[in-house]
Amino acid sequence: MDQEAGRAAAPLVLHVFPTFDVGGAQARFATLANRLGPRLRHLVVAMDGRYGCRERLGPSLDIAFPSIEIRKGDTRGNLRRFRAALRAWRPDLLVTSNWGSIEWAMAAALPPRPVRHLHMEDGFGPEERDRQVPRRVLTRRLVLRRSLTVVPSRNLERIALEVWRLPRERVRYQPNGVDLAQTEAKILPGEGLVVGTVAALRAEKNVARLLRAFRIATETRRARLLVVGDGPERPALDALAKELGIAGHVHFAGHVPRPLGLIAAMDVFALSSDTEQMPLSVLEAMAAGKPVAATAVGDVADMLARENRPYAVPRDDEALAGAIGALLDNAAARRVLGGANRARAESVYSQDAMVGAWADLLGAPVSVPP
């Protein structure tokens, strides 16, 4: 990349992710990069060296994935290396994502500040499911006080203001958006209604809870469970399905780059997470006109149409099973709730509105510079 020549053409944004495997934050970035096209240039760094979300990026993008040495636990050395990279790469904006990239935020906060900085906080891992870690609270309070922190949920906005005590003018609530184009449902083999989820198979997503709830809900009902996604919990979930006696009714689809066709084939979308803020999978289910049974974490209940909110329940196997079972039993309710969710997605969570807001946040020019 000829950065000096390119700088006259479009701003250069450096994005740092804990991982660039497919997840909500990574999918949002791919959407923004593809939609904004030549209005921006991009550098992407994954702290864990994983770049699975590259598959979602258009081939015409001006984007690079520079190498840099990252040593886990070597904060002082990392800060020195990251400061040197910022001086060498000379981005117009640094965008960091979640706690896993906080050392880059620290590098940008040290005087003299080398670059304008935006921090995106999408949520927390299992270690911060129920309470904030004091050391992390203090670090965020000190490091982010002069940066712009963007959050997709009102719950995170409250935490940034009241717990991290960031200045009001340095915190921006920007909800995620979803593609509202209708997608044709894929044909799934087998019989019975389909309960489905889309989730990385990690501990905080607690798909084990969904397996247990599905078993309870289908003791007197006929249904299938579709799990879209992959991750380190997959072997344990396979074993649990066999232990529960439901392996024949559960299909693990693995990683699917574009799961919208599978979401369209579901009769009930389920979310079983221990911690979320504004999950993209729920937005995609709403856009597909699906009723949702979910744990009431983060902003999930507020995201849903008013009619669907009673099906956002505590983080409990029996409660989730009750919500799933009630939806399986009532085809009319599924239609009404699905339609209401679709209408709410159209009115509140437009992808066009999200892209427009992020174009401003990222400093994308209105048109492509000559």
Poorly predicted sequence stretches spanning 5 or more consecutive residues: 1-7
Q: What is the quaternary state of this protein?
A: single chain
Q: Percent range for helical residues?
A: 25-40%
Which strand order does the major sheet show?
A: 3-2-1-4-5-6-7
> Gyration radius, to the nearest Å?
21 Å
Mean pLDDT score, rounded?
A: 94
Helix count, per DSSP?
A: 14
Structural class: alpha/beta
Order of helices and strands: HEHEEHEHEHEHEEHEHEHEHEHEHHH
How would you describe this protein?
It is a single chain. With 370 residues, this protein is α/β, with parallel strands linked by helices. The protein folds into 2 domains: 3-177 and 351-362, Glycogen Phosphorylase B (Rossmann fold), CATH 3.40.50.2000; 193-348, Glycogen Phosphorylase B (Rossmann fold), CATH 3.40.50. Helices cover 39% and strands 16% of the residues. Strands 3-2-1-4-5-6-7 form a 7-stranded parallel sheet, sandwiched between helices. A 6-stranded parallel sheet has the order 10-9-8-11-12-13, with helices on both faces. Helix 7 crosses helix 12 (317-329) and helix 10 crosses helix 13. It is globular, with a radius of gyration of 21 Å. It starts with a helix and ends in an 8-residue tail after the last helix.
Please specify the SSE layout and strand pairing:
Blueprint: H1 3-7, E1 12-17, H2 24-36, E2 41-46, E3 63-64, H3 75-89, E4 93-97, H4 102-109, E5 116-120, H5 134-143, E6 148-151, H6 154-163, E7 171-173, E8 193-198, H7 207-217, E9 223-228, H8 234-244, E10 250-254, H9 260-264, E11 268-271, H10 280-287, E12 292-295, H11 300-303, E13 312-313, H12 317-329, H13 331-348, H14 351-362
